[in-house]
Amino acid sequence: MAQRGDLGGTFDPIHIGHLLAAEAAREGAGLDEVWLLPANVPPHKADGSRTDAEHRWRMVCEAAAGNPHLRASDLELRMGGVSYTIDTVLLLKERYPGTRFSFIIGGDMIAYLPKWHRIDEIVEHIRFIGLQRPGYPDPGSGLPETLRGAVTMVPMPAVDISSTGIREQRRQGRSARYQVPEAVYRYMEVNRLYEQDT
């Protein structure tokens, strides 16, 4: 059975930290492939404060190009509406019955799993791969037993890069080069994304 990881997010913009997370999860959990799924409307960002989906999608495609273990997927963008994990999980299971799915999340998100929409149903279908930063305690230790068994922890290098920080740097007229893949940087430059007057 194929082992696939799904790394979702707003990707506004996708950056080196996202790619390091995908690679850490792939190696640490023995995945065949990692799919990058830009969210249409993330539940925690439903106020509309995000870059147009087409730009975010194009940047993800640029970031995934050239890596045989990475694939860009517009599944959640095509689904429309708020991107709830349970809806994505059920659709993936229906379309790819011969694949075992894992959802890759940051270690800081693990403690919040009990609050996720329909989490008990989600863990019936997938496992989670939690990215653990060096020097931090195991964030899954406080989870209920039913959830703790659904989380596999893998080490993740410490990277202090964020999409929020990149957007702010661009607004201030500062370069974000080398924090994003070069192709993504060129895309942002050509389309003048996150600049003060955009």
Architecture overview:
With 198 residues, the protein is an alpha/beta fold. Strand 1, helix 1 and strand 2 form a beta-alpha-beta unit. Helix 2 packs antiparallel against helix 9. The protein has 9 helices and 6 strands, in the order E-H-E-H-E-H-H-E-H-H-E-H-E-H-H. The model has no long low-confidence stretch (mean pLDDT 91). The protein starts with a strand and ends in a 7-residue tail after the last helix. The protein has a single domain, classed as 3-Layer(aba) Sandwich (Rossmann fold). Helix content is 37%, strand content 18%.
CATH architecture identity: 3-Layer(aba) Sandwich
CATH class: Alpha Beta
CATH superfamily: HUPs
Major sheet details? 6 strands, parallel
Give the neighbour order of strands across the main sheet: 3-2-1-4-5-6
Distance between the termini: 46 Å
In the predicted model, the low-confidence regions spanning at least 5 consecutive residues are: none
Labels describing this entry:
single chain; 198 residues; Rossmann fold; nicotinate-nucleotide adenylyltransferase activity
Task: Please render the helix and strand layout as text.
Layout: E1 2-9, H1 16-29, E2 33-38, H2 53-64, E3 70-72, H3 75-79, H4 85-95, E4 99-106, H5 107-110, H6 119-122, E5 127-132, H7 145-148, E6 151-155, H8 163-171, H9 182-191
Parallel strand pairs: 1-2, 1-4, 2-3, 4-5, 5-6
Helix pairs in contact: 2-9
Gist of the model:
It catalyses: nicotinate beta-D-ribonucleotide + ATP + H(+) = deamido-NAD(+) + diphosphate. The chain is α/β, with parallel strands linked by helices and 198 residues long.
